[in-house]
Predict the 3D structure of the following.
Amino acid sequence: MSPFLGPLDSTGRVPQLQQTRVAGFLISAHGALARQLAFALPGQLSAGWQTELNAQFHREMEFVSLLMRATAWVPDFTLPYMALTWERQVGKLWTELLEGIGIRRSETE
């Protein structure tokens, strides 16, 4: 029994459906962060913080790539709906964060 993911299968692994859903959520979250980093990256890197932003973008993409390969995927027809729900929530939280520091959504588009 895993304290976070419920009973394990006979080989001691997390069941494939749970792997699919957890990986789908993590890919959605890290993919959203990677998209925001890609949007913030300038065309030419000249300052140190820009280089770090570029490195963080590539770390996020590497994490997503590794997670996609390490997951035992099974068909889950509810996953696209759940991913849209997660993306909408991430967008809402991002907007609230920007407004909290004094940046309006229309200024970032």
Observations:
- The chain has a mean pLDDT of 77.
- The longest helix spans residues 16-40.
- The chain is about 70% helix and 0% strand.
